[in-house]
Amino acid sequence: MTPEWLAHRYDEGNDAVHFVSAPRALRRSVPFLTDEYLEATDAPTIWKRGDALAAARGASQTHFIFHSAYCCSTLLAQAFDIPGAAHSLSEPQILNDMVGWRHRGGNPAEIGMVTDSALQLLARPFVEGEATVIKPSNVVNGLATALLSIRPEAKAVLLHAPLRLFLGSIARKGMWGRLWVRELLSRQLAEGMVDLGFEPRDYLLHTDLQAAAVGWLAQHRLFSDMARKWPDRIRTLDSETLVARPGEAFAALASLFGIALTEAQIASTVADVFARDSKSGKAFASGQRAADQTAAEALHADEIEKVSSWAEAVAASAGIDMALPAPLLG
User: Cβ(7)–Cβ(94) under 8 Å?
Assistant: First the structure.
């Protein structure tokens, strides 16, 4: 089975993996490896999981980009598509399937075993020696510690946007952004990730941006705990540092992942990937990102200010440090 066949979905009822044809060029052209972006591919090829593992080539070294959304994580994942050195996978659907199975009451031991298989099938390099860099959806964050336990040699970066910018991004997205944070919060509650001293009914009384802040705090606590648990394997990074210092951040992360890159490779990647929108592929207009952030702040300034102050008070009460440990860059 060639690496062009992506392990896309898992059917727990039949212990089968659905593979779709996703050559490297296709993976580069879409922001996420989800049904929405792969629906135009040919019908899937279905293999029993055991047969697929037997037919697959050996897996490569695997590393992770875990993120809390709206923080340039897709951009960073795209930077690690460097033929011969690394290939990247942005939000592969099969890891979301593990989360869905878990929420439906799946046996934890079975989920762990199949997740191990999924990682092995995802980490088939296009070129021998390439590392695999996986950016799971932030829906998968509840499984982040399990993924690192399953792959004890893996390293990870924990990427986030500062709270106020995150809230501004949600507000700027309008109704869909506000619906998304409530859906995310419902998943985090199901995962048992939220422990901020609220009663269950309180979450129904929160505004949309309060719900967004609760989700952000839950992920921040998880990231802080992970960074302290694995100080030799994990580094943390915020989106504004990444945007301001892309070359340094990319070089430091490649070093953490053990991916040998020349200065020329780093410079060309930064000049290419970090100069365009990760979703549309269009070049960034000068000052566009800052202008978008300013517009969101101006339109929703009062709400963002009040929710930010509220969230900081909640964080202090819950013992959550707003600054993550183990920064990638000093």
Answer: yes
Q: Which residues pair with 157 in a beta bridge?
A: 65, 235
CA torsion angle 73 75 80 82 (round to 10): 170
CA–CA gap between residue 223 and residue 207 (Å, rounded): 24
Say which CATH topology domain 5-162+219-284 has: Rossmann fold (3.40.50)
Contact, 17 vs 115, CB < 8 A? no
Tens place of pLDDT for every residue, the chain, 330 residues?
789 999 999 999 999 999 999 999 999 999 999 999 997 677 899 999 999 999 986 778 999 999 999 999 999 999 999 999 999 999 999 999 999 999 999 999 999 999 999 999 999 999 999 999 999 999 999 999 999 999 999 999 999 999 999 999 999 999 999 999 999 999 999 999 999 999 989 999 999 999 999 999 999 999 999 999 999 999 999 999 999 999 999 999 999 999 999 999 999 999 999 877 656 666 665 566 666 667 667 778 999 999 999 999 999 999 999 999 999 998
Q: Which two tokens stand for residue 171?
A: 């507000």
DSSP string, 2-44: -TTEEEEEEETTTTEEEEEE--HHHHHH-S--SHHHHTTSPPP
